[in-house]
Amino acid sequence: MVMEAIPFVLVGVLISGLIQTFVKDQWIARIMPRNRYLATVFGCGIGIFFPSCECGIVPITKRLINKGMPLHAGIAFMLTGPIINPIVLFSTYIAFGNDWEMVGIRAGLATAVAFSVSIILSFIFKDLPFRVKDGQAAAAAEHGAEPFAVRVPAGKRLYEVILHAIDEFFSVGKYLVLGALIAACMQTFVPTSYLLHLGSNPVTSSLVMIALAFIISLCSEADAFIAASFRSTFTVGSLSAFLVFGPMIDIKNTLMLLGTYRSKFVFVLIGLVTVFTLIGSLIVGRLFG
Length: 289
Hints:
Blueprint: H1 2-22, H2 25-31, H3 36-45, H4 54-66, H5 71-84, H6 86-95, H7 100-124, H8 137-142, H9 154-189, H10 192-197, H11 202-216, H12 223-228, H13 236-248, H14 251-260, H15 263-288
Helix pairs in contact: 1-4, 1-9, 3-5, 3-7, 4-5, 4-14, 5-7, 5-13, 6-7, 7-13, 7-15, 9-14, 11-13, 11-15, 13-15
């Protein structure tokens, strides 16, 4: 699990370092829609340009929010990014026998869940919910302030990218290792067959797949192949719950979130993602079951 995740964490922290060093606060303010709902839609869509799974999305999101991206747009990006990026969508297409229907269901449900969760969070949390209050730099971005305007040589800036990436990697990495350890313990001691027996109706079936996605903590590039193996056992609705919930919330990702955001925010986020994924999967089951 750790070896599978580390390459994507490295990609995530390098992108985070590039954003920190080269992306100016005014650029974020200039391209970000002022309207809360349009900004959230924008956040849901930009994940297509970031080939990062849930292992590396947390540091990227934190950096973007610190640069002035509104919380609701940042969370929308964090939730959809690991699902709608081209690598994940293509792996889903291949896993389900070159079938675009499941690709569309996965991307559509992920976008709907992320949009709904992000909008609700934007009304609940008015301030940035970071554990360490380095996010206060975003307040300056909201007023168009740029703390450092001095031009720095390109070589030095690349060196800063590496330094930021190293700091971010060790900050996130410890939560990745601990999360992988917990996930491995649960896979060893909680029989998958026990969860499968619970999937007797649409609601419990979706809940079982949500729990399974959380426990096995797969990277989003690989989870579609696991989901496809359950096609004879579970409905399309419950499979969509697995494909959407896992990349948004799993064990290792939860620990990374708890290391970055305040506990109250993380638990509210998990609760909302669970509720909307369940509702969405039931709707998908009715439409495509």
